[in-house]
Amino acid sequence: xxxxxxxxxxxxxxxxEHAPNxxxxxxxxxxxxxxxxxxxxxxxxxDGFEPTSYPSEWLPEDAPTLLxxxxxxxxxxxxxxxxxxxWTKQTDPAVVLVKPRVEGSPEPFLEFLIAEAFVELGxxxxxxxxxxxxEAYREFDRVVPLGPNDTYQVATALYDGWVGLQxxxxxxxxxxxxxxxxxxxxxxxxxxxxxxxxxxxEVARGETEFADATELxxxxxxxxxxxxxxxAALETGAYRDHGPEYAITWAEKTFDALAE
Length: 260
Known about the structure:
- The chain is an alpha+beta fold and 260 residues long.
- It has one domain (2-259).
- 54% of the residues lie in helices and 8% in strands.
- The longest helix has 30 residues, at 148-177.
- The protein starts with a strand and ends with a helix.
């Protein structure tokens, strides 16, 4: 299931700076969440596990089953919304998993995604939005008038946007010492600009669901491109500094405005 991935010199440099000793593996099969038996197969590769767990009281009654599993004591690696690259600090050392879905992606973009995982591992952040919202996730669930799966998607997106606010300063600094990675970061942002700018019209016309629009807009935050209303309010120092409280206020105001 896991095959060690050889890193280029530039990726090895980023790993050494942000996430030393992290192991990187190509995965044989795609996944959102690894089956417990497969996750435990990592035990022959890593030195140990320290599964993440959170109080069940943080979860709304209709929380998705996978979120309940993640909050429990069972080792849970990978969750919906992780994208093509998953990382975890529940192993010692940390692990980055490259999914087969990246096959066919331009090599510079793939290298950026792996480098991004190293940068995120180096930040003092939780592995999942539940560790970001903590007990406030119940309040977030209350103000978001969507089903549990869409609420999960919006929460994942908002957390990704908050992480992107921190990581993008590192990406911008690559222009000096990692120009190829910086070019891949900027090129990905350029490809997103047109799609992001049209999101308000698409949501208003019912062409794009709000959760999908939030996911795309928040994914663009790390690329430092201009966002349209209402997502522009997330691209602020206030969001970076106040995190979950700001996200809840933003969600409440945004859905109130959509209901008018």
